[in-house]
Amino acid sequence: MRPTPEQLADLPLFGSLSFEQLKAVATLSELRHEDGGTTLVGEGAPGYSLFLLQEGTAVVTSGGEQLATLGPGDFFGEIALLAEGRHTATVTATSAVSLIVMYAADFQVFERDFPESSALMKHAMAERLARAR
Fold it and tell me: Whole-angstrom Cα distance, residue 51 to residue 102?
């Protein structure tokens, strides 16, 4: 199932986009629901998707150490997608979650067509990588 433009409008990553642009992004992504306790991505696993947390919470861990807590509007998976090829941390849902998922090929279209939003994500990725090293 695809997210609606209204669902995307609430996410800070897409805050600069018009309604027409949000409609285009909706065609590049899918809406997924997972239960609390579900491992959403595993540390060291190959990464081919960007995940945006629409509803719910999740925890980020690496080597058994908690790095962050995520909530609505946060995203993950971008480091594996853009830089490392593998997930640098495990993300586990701590409640039922709704996720907007964008696969690699669709993400390339997103990067090309929405450079401002893409730049915001790349900036956040650079900060995360700097903290991890």
Answer: 7
Whether the Cβ atoms of residue 46 and residue 67 lie closer than 8 Å to each other: no
Calpha distance 43→23 (Å, rounded): 32
Kindly report the backbone phi and psi dihedral angles of residue 77, in degrees, each rounded to the nearest multiple of 5, phi listed first.
Answer: 95, -10
Asked if 72 contacts 53 with a C-beta cutoff of 8 angstroms, the reply is: yes
User: 72-126 pLDDT, tens per residue?
Assistant: 999 888 777 777 677 789 999 999 999 999 888 888 887 788 777 767 666 766 6
* pLDDT higher than threshold 60 for residue 45: yes
Which structure tokens are listed for 58? 């999740």
CATH numbers and ranges of domains, the chain: 5-123 (2.60.120.10)
DSSP 44: T
Separation CA 99–CA 122 (nearest Å)? 20
- Please enumerate in sequence order all residues whose Cβ is within 8 A of that of 108, keeping only pairs 6 or more positions apart, or say none: none
